Amino acid sequence: MNIISARNLALWYGDNKALKEVSISIPEKSITAFIGPSGCGKSTFLKTLNRMNDLVLSVRIEGTVEYAGKNIFDPSVDVNELRREVGMVFQKPNPFPMSIYDNIAYGPRTHGITNKARLDEIVEKSLRDAAIWEEVKDRLKKNALGLSGGQQQRLCIARALAVEPKVLLMDEPTSALDPISTSRIEELAEELKEKYTIVMVTHNMQQAVRISDYTAFFLLGELVEFGETEKLFSQPMDKRTEDYITGRFG
Amino acid sequence: MDILLKKEQQINEDDFMEKRVKRQLETKVIRKRKTYEASMKVLMLASTFLTGLLVVFLISYVLIKGIPNLSIEFLITKPSYITEKIGILPDILNTVYIVLATLFIVLPLGVGAAIYLTEYASNKKIVGAIEYAAETLSGIPSIIYGLVGMLFFCQFMGMKTSLLAGAMTLVIMNLPTIMRTTQESLKTVPQSYREGAFGLGAGKWRVVRTVVLPGCVDGVITGCILSVGRILGESAALLFTAGFAHAVNGLLDGLSAPGATLTVALYVYAKEQGEFGVAFAIASILMMLTVLINLAATMVGKYFNKKKN
């Protein structure tokens, strides 16, 4: 089952065409990795999937992205509801400058949950799902900025999980973290794919090989190749993919 | 043999002389440089000393001339022609009323405009033009605001000469300050906070209210304190619009009636009645208030910095 399908998606920043007719179907409950050199459009494409690019003023988009059978650019789609279902974890951990509890409760409160008992339940469940509950359960009222970088990133994942998304977009979630925190996030991603669809941009090819089920290779705004990770890395179909994964450029 | 030895000696001596001359030259350069450095240091020290002296002189002059004229009675009575005593209670009250009225109107306007310009507006050219205009406005001499205020609020809007007309004039004067300080502090709120909130499906206003505004409270408060200082010190604009009366009124009556603030009263007592003792007493009060306001601004800044970290 595919959960997100892009058809001929083209995107311009001003006059600069950053994505060239990308078509891709992302399977449900799996990890899909986007790889490619800097500036290849992989992050741009990721941010298109929950319309975070709307925040950039000069962006123009053509083509369609279907999520749950509906074009997300259709005027009838509520962008806030879309972002609730297609959550996002950013490159740099970005907890809000408030308590750990309030960080997690931010999403549910945004979507109208005010019952204290219900919020407590969501906070605990999200923190458990993000494998950080044991570390923070005694200091839920403390400021989230006091956590370490790795903890902050898991907190951000918990915050994203708290609104019960279907898809989790991760934009290089480990690039600002140390190796130990990185491996914890990777383990977490592998656990989360039981319940969620994960789309992850990564700079690190080993990471893509380690944890992803499918890999998409982007180059200069073009989707060069997309397929099962194992196949893409062992028998790439395209010469450019082969050159990239064997380290000839990048 | 002998000649050779002598020659060598000669060469050695020449070499020695040459080195000596060189060394002398070097020390000359160094000495010159050192005197230059030292004299510049003295010059800078002298300017610092003069500046300090000036500040100390000004403050102590005002305080020495003013404090002997201060008394509790002076602070809590109004002037009376019968007893021929002067009290500044009405002027203090008028000042408080005008500060309150101005902030009450200017805060929502300025903060609202700042939020719209930084968070909502998409046409950066128009935003830039408005910012530029605001900066220009804040540099205009206040007497021009007074003139316009008198014609527009007092006459055209029919407010007559009143504290309200004065407050409205000050609103226009302080609007750019409040707007710009709020804008600047809105810009210091990291974009990643906004992205995080949008990413969770929060709408624009929710993002502004819960994530952006708490991060810029310090800027708003700093702007407020700066404005209060500016209102306290304003006389030219109020001479035109708020009048010179010394009657004790409540807040609402006071706003619709003319009245002198402390600075205006200072001007009137000194210039028109020759009461320099009273003028200096008011001056010393204003001076102490200014110090208090600056202290408050610093403390608020520190408090919020602490809270942020």
Short descriptors:
heterodimer; A: 250 residues; alpha/beta; Rossmann fold; six-stranded mixed sheet; four-stranded antiparallel sheet; 10 helices; 10 strands; 36% helix; B: 309 residues; mainly alpha; MetI-like fold; 13 helices; flat
Fold blueprint:
The complex is a heterodimer of chains A (250) and B (309).
Chain A: E1 2-13, E2 16-27, E3 31-35, H1 42-48, E4 59-67, E5 70-71, H2 79-85, E6 86-89, H3 100-110, H4 116-129, H5 133-136, H6 149-161, E7 167-171, H7 179-192, E8 197-201, H8 205-211, E9 214-219, E10 222-228, H9 229-234, H10 239-245
Parallel strand pairs in A: 3-8, 3-9, 6-7, 7-8
Antiparallel strand pairs in A: 1-2, 1-4, 4-5, 9-10
Helix pairs in contact in A: 3-4, 3-6, 4-6, 6-7
Chain B: H1 2-66, H2 72-76, H3 89-120, H4 124-137, H5 142-156, H6 163-187, H7 191-199, H8 204-212, H9 217-233, H10 236-241, H11 251-256, H12 262-272, H13 276-308
Helix pairs in contact in B: 1-13, 3-6, 3-9, 4-6, 5-6, 6-9, 7-8, 9-13, 12-13
Would you write up a description of this structure?
The complex is a heterodimer of chains A (250) and B (309). Chain A has helices at residues 42-48, 79-85, 100-110, 116-129, 133-136, 149-161, 179-192, 205-211, 229-234, 239-245; strands at residues 2-13, 16-27, 31-35, 59-67, 70-71, 86-89, 167-171, 197-201, 214-219, 222-228. Chain A is α/β, with parallel strands linked by helices and 250 residues long. In chain A, a hairpin with a 2-residue loop joins strand 9 and strand 10. In chain A, helix 3 packs parallel to helix 6 (149-161) and helix 4 (116-129) packs across helix 6 (149-161). The mean pLDDT of chain A is 91. The model of chain B has no long low-confidence stretch (mean pLDDT 86). Helix content of chain B is 80%, strand content 0%. Chain B has two domains: 2-65; 72-308, MetI-like fold, CATH 1.10.3720.10. With 309 residues, chain B is mainly α. In chain B, helix 3 packs antiparallel against helix 9, helix 9 runs antiparallel to helix 13 (276-308) and helix 12 (262-272) packs antiparallel against helix 13. The radius of gyration of chain B is 31 Å and the shape is flat. The chains are: A alpha/beta (250), B mainly alpha (309).
